[in-house]
């Protein structure tokens, strides 16, 4: 059920993440992923904020601060996909970039050539108990390749394989039951 709230968004403008080294991050996003750097900002506290064009009018941005807290794998970021992928409430689990399905295999090759840690197969996500299938079939709704950037941020190239309909929304939302 969609409720008219009067708010009209047009998608994601950008997501802002934190990096440990802006030069290393810029090299990865520009040279490995082919995302042009289109805006840089020097912050008053000595930090930086850089924006990369990830296509479709969307951007991924990074903050850098000399004194930023260290990474916290398993809390604020994924430890190891797919077997240790839980992250803390309020954290970002991963960032998925839309990609055409026909481009996924070439993306795997490019990540391998660049020495980027990644899944060595395309995941076929379906509604089976495991959540994925080894082969594609009509129940596969997205195909994905997972990898990490130099900051340990889990990224995904995702190709939606079919249109979604009312039957795709069939689970009751879970709730945390608190003791009285």
UniProtKB/TrEMBL annotation:
A Pfam family of the record is: Glyoxalase
Q: InterPro entries from the entry?
A: Glyas_Bleomycin-R_OHBP_Dase, Glyas_Fos-R_dOase_dom, GlyoxalaseI/FosfomycinResist, VOC_core
Could you tell me which SUPFAM superfamilies the record lists for this protein? Glyoxalase/Bleomycin resistance protein/Dihydroxybiphenyl dioxygenase
The organism of origin for this protein: Erythrobacter dokdonensis DSW-74
Q: Which of UniProt's keywords are assigned here?
A: Lyase
Which GO molecular function annotation, any one, does this entry have? lyase activity
UniProt-listed CDD domains: VOC
Q: Where is the VOC domain?
A: 11-160
Q: What is this protein called?
A: Lactoylglutathione lyase
Task: Tell whether Lyase is among the UniProt keywords.
Answer: yes
- Give the matching PANTHER family: GLYOXALASE FAMILY PROTEIN, METALLOTHIOL TRANSFERASE FOSB
């Amino acid at each position: 059920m969609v409720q008219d709230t009067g708010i009209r968004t047009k998608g994601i403008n950008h997501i802002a993440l934190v990096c440990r080294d802006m030069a290393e991050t810029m090299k990865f996003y520009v040279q490995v992923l082919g995302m042009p750097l289109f805006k840089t900002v020097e912050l008053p506290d000595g930090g930086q904020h850089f924006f990369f064009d990830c296509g479709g009018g969307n951007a991924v941005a990074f903050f850098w601060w000399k004194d930023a807290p260290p990474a916290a794998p398993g809390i604020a970021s994924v430890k190891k996909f797919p077997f240790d992928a839980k992250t803390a409430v309020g954290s970002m689990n991963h960032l998925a970039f839309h990609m055409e399905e026909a481009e996924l295999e070439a993306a795997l090759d490019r990540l391998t050539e660049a020495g980027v840690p990644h899944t060595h197969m395309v995941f076929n996500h379906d509604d089976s108990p495991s959540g994925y299938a080894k082969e594609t079939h009509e129940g596969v709704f997205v195909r994905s390749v997972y990898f990490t950037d130099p900051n340990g941020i889990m990224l995904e190239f995702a190709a939606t394989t079919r249109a979604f309909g009312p039957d795709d929304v069939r689970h009751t939302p879970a709730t945390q039951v608190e003791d009285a």
